[in-house]
Amino acid sequence: MEKLKGIFASEIPILNLNLAHVRQFNEHLYKIIISYPDEVLTYLDATIDEIFEMTYNKKLPSIIEIRPYNAEQTKTMRDLNPQDVGQLVTICGMVTRISPIIPEMKTGYFQCALCNAPVISEVDCGRIEEPVKCSNCHDAYSFQLIHNRSFFIDKQVVKLQEIPGDMPAGQTQHSVTLFVHGSLVESVHPGDRCSVTGIYRATPIRVNPLQRTVHSIYRTSIDVIHFRKLSQDRLHEPTDG
Fold it and tell me: What secondary structure letter does DSSP report for 182?
């Protein structure tokens, strides 16, 4: 409730959640958050937003966003494996490169070319479904995407590199690609040592951008949920487990 009081005072709809505390409180809930972050975090965001509205009789401009950190014991990049795909992970490293800010569509605004009837369609897993039939004039395949009425959020690509101390002798440094969205954009810069918590993703690589055929090898990345900058002399913190 103290954190909700802070959100009420600052009107910043972000709640940082230490998963080590969740683990002490309820081991089962902790495991569910780690294993099914996409589904559980969406539900928790809606629940905490409802509690805030009931407690303070006030609705914020955007839904309160829970940002968990300390997922499991902090891993090195070499410890990530296929069993971690789709789960919440925490890794440490040094930021080596960041991209310019990229606009990414969140919801698309479609309009019928014949009767101008609008339809809003949400982007799901990088894909947006174009409406097939207009419910107003019943014409098929008549929708056009109106870009200036669609909703976009900021996106940034960050390259995180392994710290030399985590690297076995004689091996080259590993790196991982991070995708950063919304208010987390521009929160880290090259040279920063940080602990990153996010959802480990595996994305298929198309043989040809114009075809749906994909390679058997997948490209891995992390959708960042939380950044925590670390001191230069200590990368792994004793409380990370």
Answer: G
- Could you tell me what percentage of the chain is helix, strand and coil, using 3-state DSSP and rounding each to the nearest 5? 25, 40, 35
Q: What is the CATH number of the domain that holds 55?
A: 3.30.1640.10
What tens digit of pLDDT does each residue of 29-84 get? 999 999 898 889 889 888 888 888 888 887 777 788 889 888 765 667 888 888 88
Q: What's the pLDDT tens digit per position in 89-136? A: 988 889 999 999 999 898 999 999 889 899 998 887 677 888 888 888
Statement to judge: residues 52 and 125 lie in one domain: no
Question: Cα separation of 189 and 82, whole Å?
Answer: 29
Rounded Cα distance between 179 and 158, Å, is 6
Q: Check if the beta carbon of residue 197 is closer than 8 Å to that of residue 237.
A: no
Domain extent at residue 196: 73-104+153-240
For residue 39, give both structure tokens.
Answer: 């589904």
CA–CA distance, 59 with 39 (Å, rounded to integer): 23
The structural domain count of the chain equals: 3
- 90: nearest Cα among 184, 178, 188, 185: 178
Same domain as 231, residue 135: no
Shared domain for 112 and 171, answered yes or no, is no
Tokens at 28, concatenated: 């089962």
d(CA 118, CA 115) in angstroms, rounded, equals 9
- pTM score of the predicted model: 0.81
- CA 241 to the chain's CA centroid: 22
Separation between Cα atoms, residue 222 and residue 157, nearest integer Å: 10
Is there a single domain that holds both residue 81 and residue 184?
yes
Indicate whether 37 and 91 sit together in one domain: no
